[in-house]
């Protein structure tokens, strides 16, 4: 059976972590996963939608189509799933227009209504989708990582030689600019401490000496494993409440204790004082960074617990079979529903 994923790009982070990572389990369950990057042009998209009618399941990932495109896709797709891992019904934290967007919300509601099943990546997104359609049409499937792909950090450095690390993309690097006060407080407390930034773009000045590492799929795990403390700061708003904590999962998988804002899934992934710290003020950030920087043995202990968090709750091995079963169940339920209706 064919599962065609209409996605932003085959190498897009959401496709890689939410679909491609389950390809072996899907294949074992009889599914052939195909990634189809959505074309920019409307007519090219219509051709893609027509071609997708031969698929057993079409999965639209994250994108909110114009109403006429969505209607056409719904007519072509035998079974339509919608997978999302961000609060796509809002503008992001950096938008000068503010978070609320009537057009995005309207498109999201239309997409939810059109889909046979909605797959949400966290409870906040689940609840929002369930407010638009009957809750039994919404399923929860968290973003996961494969801890076997991450070497454990050794934590050999101490004091200012320890390395903070932040990993992310151009869509989130602006958070480092906003985090300047807390990073400046850290730099004042531990002069010489560096922040390793692993990204495709880099901040101009975030209040601390920065060590630049160009992101690549091949080197990201090593760049984390040779650091000491993972950093995940975000402002608190409805957009960030919808984030799914991928960078936190990567830190945890690499055996790094994480210092993070107490927002959204961070509260679920991080147990304060065990595998990381949840802090708010610049002083608290400086206190926790100093504590971890000065005590490598504490970082190792918390790092072991961090790795265990991923292995037990957010690993691909634990969720892959469940995801394949979810796709199969959605397929069967949708076909039964359509047969009954028509």
Short description:
The protein contains 15 helices and 12 strands.
Structure characterization notes:
The strands form 2 sheets. A 6-stranded parallel sheet has the order 2-1-3-4-5-6, sandwiched between helices. A 6-stranded parallel sheet has the order 9-8-7-10-11-12, with helices on both faces. By secondary structure, the chain is α/β, with parallel strands linked by helices. α8 packs across α13. The chain is elongated and about 70 Å long.
Structural class, please? alpha/beta
Major β-sheet, in short? 6 strands, parallel
Strand content: 15-25%
Distance between the termini: 23 Å
Number of DSSP E strands: 12
Total helical elements: 15
Radius of gyration from CA coordinates: 21 Å
Helix content: 40-55%
**How is the largest sheet built, in terms of strand order?**
2-1-3-4-5-6
Principal-axes shape call: elongated
Overall residue-averaged pLDDT value? 96
Question: What labels describe this entry?
Answer:
single chain, 342 residues, alpha/beta, six-stranded parallel sheet, 15 helices, 12 strands, elongated
């Amino acid at each position: 059976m064919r599962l065609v994923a209409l996605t932003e790009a085959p190498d897009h982070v959401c496709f890689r972590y939410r679909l491609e990572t389950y390809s072996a389990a899907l294949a074992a369950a009889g599914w052939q996963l195909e990634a189809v990057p959505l074309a920019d042009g409307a007519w090219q998209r219509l051709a893609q939608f027509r071609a997708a009618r031969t698929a057993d399941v079409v999965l639209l990932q994250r994108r909110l189509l114009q109403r006429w495109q969505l209607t056409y896709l719904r007519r072509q797709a035998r079974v339509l799933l919608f997978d999302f891992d961000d609060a796509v019904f809002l503008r992001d934290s950096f938008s000068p227009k503010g978070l609320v967007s009537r057009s995005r919300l309207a498109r999201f509601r239309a997409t939810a209504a059109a889909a046979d099943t909605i797959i949400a990546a966290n409870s906040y997104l689940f609840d929002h989708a369930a407010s638009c359609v009957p809750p039994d049409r919404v399923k929860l499937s968290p973003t996961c990582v494969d801890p076997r792909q991450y070497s454990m950090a050794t934590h050999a450095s101490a004091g200012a030689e320890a390395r903070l690390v932040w990993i992310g993309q151009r869509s989130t690097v602006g958070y480092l600019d906003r985090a300047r006060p807390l990073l400046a407080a850290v730099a004042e407390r531990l002069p010489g401490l560096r922040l390793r930034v692993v990204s495709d773009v880099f901040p101009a000045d975030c209040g601390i000496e920065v060590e630049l590492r160009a992101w690549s799929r091949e080197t990201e795990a090593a760049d984390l494993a040779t650091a000491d403390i993972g950093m995940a700061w975000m402002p608190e708003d409805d957009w960030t409440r919808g984030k799914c904590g991928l960078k936190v999962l990567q830190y945890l998988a690499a055996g790094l204790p994480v210092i993070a804002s107490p927002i959204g899934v961070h509260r679920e992934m991080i147990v304060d004082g065990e595998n990381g710290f949840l802090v708010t003020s610049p002083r608290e950030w400086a206190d926790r960074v100093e504590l971890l920087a000065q005590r490598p043995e504490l970082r190792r202990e918390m790092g072991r617990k961090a790795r265990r968090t991923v292995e037990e709750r957010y690993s691909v091995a634990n969720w892959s079979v469940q995801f394949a079963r979810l796709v199969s169940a959605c397929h069967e339920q949708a076909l039964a529903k359509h047969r009954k209706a028509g």
